[in-house]
Design a protein that fits this description.
Length: 924
RNA sequence: GCCCGAAUGGUGGAAUGGUAGACACGAGGGACUUAAAAUCCCUUGGCCAUUACGGCUGUGUGGGUUCGAGUCCCACUUCGGGUACCA
């Protein structure tokens, strides 16, 4: 019997499929466990070897938990809406659905080859009407809800309407776009349009005029997390700011709960930190500064109310509504010109160009505490979208204000003792206050923290302002001017938006002749014929963004075919939440925020039983490419080997990693690669051409893409799985290097030879020896602990050691070998299943086996080795009885023959004995 | 700029404060073979020895705590990741 991976893997993959081995049902007799992968977007390029990394880890954990007796939910599906399929459709006219279907088929066949234990009966696709019905349904629920800030929960909008009818906005605690002040009489006198507009101020899904990231190249708006450094994440196109009337989700209402919820989940600190920064809670005060000779008051937000005595000017955002109100006649032309110049800059230009610019409005404000007159300026370093779009500038203690003050020659008043502000501002929140006293308030002599508290207390007591918490987290823009997304279930009656009846869902994505905007600039759905309700009302033309479909998919997996609700209470109360979620950290500020928001909303409605969707989360690292280079001597067709390249003037050229083995170039394949190289000549070292290498992103253009299918074909899925885990710690980014794969492949062959020695079955019913049991239980202990810690690389090493030991011991014991296979089954399921049946003689799948119990007894030693150190330096080792008391051990060390030379002419000051490990003799 | 993380042989990487470099790759040497592949054995951080499986040194840099530091503390350097005129 030889190890034949192709035959084995085909056989068992078929067996598992035919026997529905991985089908999962609710089973109250067993504890549940939910392991989830972030489902993939099926791109046209297919999977490369980096994609399955997280899936392999989650599969190992899933299989391990099943062997431990858990009923494990482990589903998979596709995040099927997305830009690439649509852009492909625009170029080729092929329907995105066709592209997507083909890509999904390719993904599925690639995934199947790796031997995952997904329950495919629960597969979902976000573009499937049966699925997106529930995405649309959730949107309608959000439209019909507002956020009650007193109850800290979403409530039906009908409750809000009732409140407005009776009390107006008096006593209303609701998250809102703007603070409104309405009497019941005013509300009741409103017409439908006015009422609709008013309610939009409160709805969780609302239409609003907001500054959006507009990407002209993609022809759509983008959410904040879809933009990085002024460029779109998809495609890298420039993004500009634009005021648009768009659908939004009031995620900001949940900011505090999203922050608090992080305390309850088991995620890495760095990921929690990323979310905390993104939510960006800052505590401070909102204050009003009266404008001189006017009734207008400027409202500002500051986190440093303690620095109120150092305010030497104020700054408004160019878009601030105050600018028009206070600018003096003589300054108006300059201010208008400045605002125009800002408007014409794209977001990216604004980022690159960090010059300090601004203009004086001509107006002065009054410092409410000192009564001093201070000039009001306009500058683009103040953002309209944060706080109130106006600031009090304290140049001595804020670096941005400092730069502005120096540019426009404004005064700088230091407020902290010893702070040198001649060269730069002193931003630290520490020190003793100076220059901070008026008739009503004296902060001098206080520490910064005390001063902050005192200032806040004073401000709220005197009514100058109030203590306020601000969040950086913005509402999510929910409209996309695209075709390939979920239609928003909204129709317009006389221009007033209303949601469709829930019973009419799903609202199907209509057919269009082209996937481009209409001539009049409307989104592609504007091309759909008859895009109206049955009653003839026009339907919404925007579609939902990419994150919509992925926000509640983990709930749908619990009950994927339910036609009457998103998830039944029975299914939800059994599966509860995701116990382990594995995926990339790139979703930290997108999907992982939106999902948590969406889940909390459903929780408020009493539709799900857990407040947080993902209990434990692991970020697998990215697998980078390892590119190979050849070195062409300039202006020739001669290539010089890596070790000799420095003697020539060379150009490095990427070469396909698939024709390089251990950095040695297959010269014949290289010549055949391109006609250009057919006549190439080579300068070799030691008869070989050695390539250089570099770690880069895995991509076609670098010729460093390694396809998992090729690895499976050549070495088998088990080798691929083990090798991906062996490569390094799961959470760390690391380059893929096929070179090391022979090591794990050899391990599988060694394992095989343990069961079939010289082609003959080598398993007997002999009793295990103490040595056998020691090797086995060392492994049980190590692998169990490693899986719990996601330290898969070290468990693979432990398998290698154990197999070597058992081979050396000539172990044939069926009991020991069977347990070895169970331990290995999560990692290399095919070979484990094969040997389980053919060599062990089992008649049921190894998936139905039980994880072996660890017994400390077998590891107990009668003697242990001590390292004997002198002054901390280890010098020799000695054996001692395992149960010897410390005094006996130190006496043994001192009388040991090797000790004599170290003890010569020295006095022993102290002896430290660490049982079973170290004897450290401290000499005088 | 701010926040987080990392730094260990030629390479990927192991090490509850207790003999640094597990495991693997690569490399060198050997066995088997007409030869190659495959397989197996030995060596492999550096330096000095090789009469000794002996010595010295060694985990980015400099300090500290400790009987003992890759591991803990302080300062710094470099590299990744996140975020950015967020007041």
């Amino acid at each position: 019997m030889e190890y034949n991976h192709k035959e084995i893997e085909n056989r068992w993959q078929q067996y598992w499929r035919e026997n529905n081995t991985y089908r999962t049902e609710i089973d109250h007799s067993r504890p549940k466990f939910y392991v989830l992968d972030m489902f993939p977007y099926p791109s046209g390029a297919g999977l490369h070897v980096g994609h399955p990394l997280g899936y392999i880890a989650s599969d190992i954990y899933t299989r391990y938990k099943r062997l431990q007796g858990f009923n494990v939910l482990h589903p998979m599906g596709y995040d099927a809406y997305g830009l690439p399929a649509e852009q492909y459709a625009i170029r080729t006219g092929q329907h995105p659905e066709v592209t997507t279907r083909n890509n999904i088929e390719r993904y599925r066949s690639q995934l199947d080859k790796i031997g995952f234990s997904f329950d495919w009966s629960r597969e979902i696709k976000t573009c499937d009407p049966e699925y997106y019905k529930w995405t649309q349904w959730a949107f309608i629920k959000m439209f019909d809800s507002y956020y009650d800030t007193a109850a800290d929960a979403a409530r039906p909008i009908a409750d809000l309407v009732a409140h407005l009818q009776k009390h107006g906005t008096e006593g209303l605690h609701a998250a809102a776009t703007r603070q409104l002040s309405i009497t019941p009489e005013q509300w009741n006198a409103m017409d439908d349009k006015e009422k609709s507009d008013t309610l939009m101020n409160y709805r969780l899904a609302y239409l609003g005029n907001t500054m959006v990231n507009w990407c002209p190249a993609l022809g759509t708006v983008l959410a904040n997390d879809e933009v990085s450094e002024g460029l779109s994440i998809r495609g890298g196109h420039p993004v500009e700011q634009k005021l648009m009337y768009q659908w939004c989700l009031r995620v900001s209402a949940y900011a505090q709960r999203l922050l608090d919820g992080l305390e309850k989940v088991d995620w890495t600190d760095s990921l929690k930190e990323t979310q905390r920064n993104w939510i960006g809670r800052s505590e401070g005060a909102e204050m009003r500064f009266p404008v001189a000779d006017s009734d207008i008051e400027l409202e500002i937000f500051t986190t440093r109310p303690d620095t109120i005595f150092g305010v030497t000017f104020m700054v408004l955002a160019p878009e601030s509504k105050y600018v028009d109100m206070i600018t003096t006649e003589e300054m108006r032309p300059a201010v208008d010109e400045y605002r125009q110049s800002i408007k014409h800059k794209t977001e990216r230009e604004r980022m690159i160009d960090r010059r300090v610019t601004g203009v004086f409005t001509g107006a002065y404000a009054i410092n409410p505490i000192t009564g001093k007159k201070i000039p009001v300026w306009v500058s683009d370093y103040v953002l309209a979208g944060y706080g109130t779009g106006a600031i009090m500038a304290v140049p001595a203690h804020d670096s941005r204000d400092y730069a502005f003050a120096r540019t426009f020659d404004l005064p700088v008043i230091p407020l902290i003792q010893g702070a040198d502000v001649s060269e730069q501002s002193f931003d630290a929140k520490e020190g003793t206050m100076i220059n901070s006293a008026s008739d009503s308030l004296n902060l001098n002599g206080l520490q910064v923290k005390e001063a902050m508290a005192a200032a806040k207390e004073f401000i709220s007591r005197t009514g100058i302002g109030k203590v306020k918490v601000n969040f950086r987290l913005r509402d999510a823009i929910f409209s996309r001017q695209r075709y390939w997304g979920e239609p928003i279930p909204v129709a317009y009656r006389n221009g007033i938006p209303e949601t469709l009846p829930v019973e009419s869902l799903p609202l199907l994505l209509p057919e269009v002749d082209k996937y481009l905007p209409t001539e009049s600039g409307e989104p592609p759905l504007g091309r759909a014929a008859n895009w109206k309700t049955a009653a003839g009302l026009p339907l919404e033309l925007n579609t939902m963004p990419g994150f919509a479909g992925s926000s509640a998919y983990y709930l749908r997996y619990m009950d994927p075919r339910n036609n009457s609700c998103l998830v039944s209470p029975e299914a939800n109360s059994y599966w509860k939440q995701v116990d382990l979620y594995i995926g990339g950290s790139e979703h930290a500020t997108g999907h992982l925020i939106y999902s948590r928001f969406w889940n909390k909303f459903l929780y408020d409605l009493g539709l799900v039983c857990e407040d947080e969707p993902f209990r434990r989360l692991i970020n697998q690292g990215m697998i980078q490419g390892r590119s190979n280079f050849v070195y062409r001597i300039k202006d020739t067709n001669t290539f010089v080997s890596h070790g000799l390249k420095d003697q020539y003037d060379v150009t490095p050229i990427h070469v396909d990693v698939n024709m390089v083995t251990n950095d040695r170039l297959d010269i014949e394949r290289f010549k055949a690669w391109s006609p250009e190289y057919a006549t190439a000549e080579f300068i070799l070292e030691d008869g070989q051409y050695i390539c250089g290498y570099a770690v880069e992103k895995m991509s076609k253009s670098m010729y460093n893409v390694v396809n998992p299918d090729d690895i499976v074909e050549r070495y088998g899925a088990d080798t691929l799985r083990l090798y991906e885990m062996f490569l390094g710690p799961l959470e760390q980014s690391k380059p893929w290097d096929t070179n090391g794969i022979d090591g794990v492949n050899r391990f599988i062959k060694k394992l095989w030879n343990l069961f079939y020695r010289d082609g003959k079955l080598n398993v007997t019913d002999t009793e295990p020896t103490p040595e056998n049991l020691k090797s086995l239980h060392k492994l049980i202990k190590k692998v169990t602990a490693d899986i719990e810690n996601f330290s898969f690389n070290t468990s693979v090493a432990a398998f290698m050691i154990c197999v070597n030991e058992l081979a050396q011991q000539r172990c044939t014991s069926r009991k020991v070998l069977a347990d070895l296979l169970i331990l290995l089954a999560p990692f290399a399921p095919h070979v484990a299943e094969e040997l389980w049946h053919t060599a062990i003689g089992a008649t049921t799948s190894i998936c139905d086996a039980s994880w072996p119990a660890f017994n400390e007894e077998y590891l107990r030693e009668s003697t242990v080795r001590y390292a004997v150190s002198f002054n901390g330096k280890a010098r020799f080792t000695m054996e001692a009885p395992a149960d010897a008391p410390r005094d006996t051990v130190s006496d043994m060390a001192l009388s040991h023959p090797d000790a004599a030379k170290w003890l010569e002419n020295k006095t022993v000051k102290k002896i430290i004995v660490v049982p079973g490990k170290i004897v450290n003799i401290v000499l005088g």
